[in-house]
Amino acid sequence: MNNAFRPMHAALLVLCVGFSASALAHNPMCECKAIDAEQIKCTGGFSDGSGAPGVTLDVIGYDETILLPGKLGADSTVTFKKPGSEFYVLFDAGPGHVVEIDQADIEAP
């Protein structure tokens, strides 16, 4: 084998490894909707279609206090009573897998 081709093979190998890593990557997804004036339901998962049972989903006040700590259920959802103060929802599946949803972005019933 000609030694001139070896760097090209190494570059091709690195490129292929990069593509396979990105193919395995999955982005976090979370959606919250108001069921009625009092209840909100959030559903979490990943862009590859997998669910997120047991993943942390906290309701946090604008002052950064945790108003309602929680985890997604077996069906990757959680339902909670709408807080009386301003809040956002934090879906936290680990470093690089975090989604924040502000109360203003929660769909009305």
Provide a quick synopsis of the model:
Residues 1-25 form the signal peptide. With 109 residues, this protein is α+β, with helices and mostly antiparallel strands. The chain contains 1 helix and 7 strands, in the order αβββββββ.
Task: Kindly describe this structure.
With 109 residues, the chain is α+β, with helices and mostly antiparallel strands. It has a single domain, classed as Immunoglobulin-like (Sandwich), CATH 2.60.40.10. The protein has one helix and seven strands; from the N terminus they run αβββββββ. It has one helix at residues 6-24; strands at 28-34, 39-46, 56-61, 66-68, 77-81, 87-92, 98-102. Strands 4-3-6-7 form a four-stranded antiparallel beta sheet, with no helix packed on it. The chain has a three-stranded antiparallel beta sheet with strand order 1-2-5, with no helix packed on it. The radius of gyration is 20 Å and the shape is globular. Mean pLDDT is 85; it is low at 7-23. Residues 1-25 form the signal peptide. Keywords: Signal.
Which helices and strands occur, and which strands form pairs?
Blueprint: H1 6-24, E1 28-34, E2 39-46, E3 56-61, E4 66-68, E5 77-81, E6 87-92, E7 98-102
Antiparallel strand pairs: 1-2, 2-5, 3-4, 3-6, 6-7
Signal peptide: 1-25
Keywords: Signal
